[in-house]
Task: structure prediction
Amino acid sequence: METTIKVENLSKSYGSFLAVSDLNISVERGEVFGLLGANGAGKSTSIECILGTKKADSGTVSILGMNPVTERKKLYEQVGVQFQESNYPDKITVSELCMETQSLYKTFTDYKELLKQFHLMEKEKSMVSELSGGQKQRLFIVLALIPNPEVVFLDELTTGLDVEARRVVWRSLDELKRKGLTIFLTSHYMDEVEVLCDRIGILRKGKMVFYGTVQEAIQSSNCTKLEDAYLYYTDQEGLNYESI
Result:
């Protein structure tokens, strides 16, 4: 299979603090890869270094065979990105924001079809400021998909969504995956990870402590559920039980 994202020996420090240590990831075309870890484990720094928005201290990254730092303009014609903390003007309508995003790319998907797919068509003429938190989150996913990317990065993609809305997103992403879209995501919802991810990586204090399939994570931790395996690998099971 074709390797779409290749990360080798990636490290990043802030002064004496080692945020990411010797990270290695390989994602194939049409695969969904989930990068997991507790807050502060190094997920955001890892993604920023992979995307080239933050400079790594060492290591190499290739996305679609391109260097995200030196070939940024060419690469970003084929990559979509949705960050959890996205900032867009409030005094602009949903359709205006979509059209503005469309104008940045040579090729793009009809945003109206995406709005329908993510159940936002009725909000087309609404101001972004009028959307609920969950609606904004779905809109940010739509914006990431407008350039018809080959790879999309989704950070906490269903935070703030209710159960029905989360399942709408899952079905839409599964459909896109079947069409060959490569998805790199982060999530704190283990049910979401089980539904969507072909493989996962679990970070603990900047180091990859597990890399493989969901089933392999469960089996190698001697647990019966992914949630318990995740707590095992992130060394949070004691904290979890103390809070019950």
About this structure: The chain has a mean pLDDT of 90. The beta strands are 3-14, 17-28, 32-37, 58-63, 79-82, 151-155, 182-186, 199-204, 207-212. The domain at 3-224 is CATH 3.40.50.300 (Rossmann fold). The first helix runs from residue 43 to 51.
